[in-house]
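To whoever is covering the structure queue this week,

Two jobs came back overnight. Logging them here so there's a record in the thread.

Job A:
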Amino acid sequence: MSYAKKGSLRKCLSDISKFKWQDKLQLLKTIILGLKIIHESNLTHGDFHDGNILMSDNHNELFITDLGLCKPISDSEVNEIYGVLPYMAPEILRNKPYTPASDIYSFSMIMWEFTSEKRPEIIKNTPKCYVDLMKKCWDSNPSNRPTIRMLENVISEWIRCIDKYYEMNSDVKDNYMVDANNQLLKDDMCEFVEANKTLVQEKANTSIMQSHSQAYYITRKCTEILAQVKSDIIVLEKTEIIQRSECFECIVKD
């Protein structure tokens, strides 16, 4: 395997957020193709986040790493819970089995970071079609999330259409000509072209990302943390029930 001089994807987010959209999409497609190999081998990654993706010096190669929690899709046993909380799907936090859809949720967080290098804001001028796909990927219901093959098809079509647009309009400004029969695809392409026009201003306004001093971006055991959260929720619910019952016992006399 080649040496990944750029380090983790997380270290490159500041640069990537300033890329043209066709370059962002190409990076996302490369990530998808790597994850596709895992899923089509009937495996789940189990710890998918930007710290486990390495980049080559020219950004042309990406490597998905840290497969220590990778396991067969058929393995539904849940023991300890490990991960980086912002990338963990809701069903994992509920102690449900890890599935390919859980990896897709994690991928949506990377899509989010590509827009502005940070969460939770979706910055202005992000193409609506991109936002819609991202939201499908982080749907709270795993069965509503697209498969890795669906993601590959959608993003590949976006790249093809944008490349064709710039090929046909290299010497023309503001004249949307594209060889595409699908009107929806044409609309999506126009959104990316318009978003590219705003990149100069966004680059000037982009601030350096600062992480919270207590934020964790490395994999760690979360079982005890989640158990404590559930315990706190139960205590709060019991307190609310007691308070409500005490109110019922109050009698207002004339």
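Job B:
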Amino acid sequence: MTVAAGVAALVVAKSALFHAFGPGLAVTVLVGLAVAVVLVPAMLAVLGRWTFWPYGLAAQAPAGVGRAAISDAVDDDGPADAAPSRLVRLLSRRWVAAVVAAAVIAVLVVAGRPVTELRSAVSPVAVLPAGNPVRDAAAAASAGFAPGILSPTGVIVSAPGITDRPQALAALAGQLHRQPGVDIVLGPDNQLPIQRLLNQRLPDQLGIFLAPDGGAARVLVVFDSDPLGATAVGHLGELRAAMPGLLATAGLAGAQVSYIGDTATGLSLVDQARADLVRVAVAVGLVNLLLLMLFLRALVAPL
């Protein structure tokens, strides 16, 4: 309770990150406490001596020996009518323990359902407090233009002589524009404002979209969501998966594609974090399971 109260004090922080982190960590501590004092004793009562298999109670131990031991321990600790004593006695009854264990597990499952809706993102602007100039400027730009205009994603298509294939590049740009989450696509076939002003095409786009050596072309993709948010990162992942088919349809099969920009960086971080999360979770689980098996000298109880 002390730890939960201490971390919950972070709610006074103005930063959205700490403001949300404090209560979340406090709830985590309280859930661990509830599991330790309610669910674990209930499971011990339900499983009985099989909890410590293969070194559990001897087969010839009289029935009720475990409950008697619990009663003796409770009586030694305090009055039998104390609340902790009544809880322990109640949980020592197998049918009551089974109901309590099922109820606690059901509550944990329901409470954990929002985890399935979590989406990975690395947006620093979203965690800035309200009224922050950077956040206000980002909101104004998103409202006046497409949200992704803050950081377009660059799609670099590389192949020998690709700059001499404007129709294929235009076809690819058109397909990119039809992908989910894409709001604007700028490529070699688009006139820039300076071009419209001069009413002429700039020489080789001054290297803006076409490489001077003719081996690469760039297309800018503007998403309709926060460039570093979970939605844009997810859309770029879908675009990356669909890119081989888009290249083949546009007549650019075999071309190499790379991605630059904040959304591409966020996708790389998310991919790495997701892989590390699984790897670390498995390693931590196995280490803790092994240690508990050694300390408890049992195979069932650690589970």
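Note for Job B: Residues 174 and 279 are 39 Å apart (CA to CA).

Please reply-all if you pick these up so we don't duplicate work.
Q.
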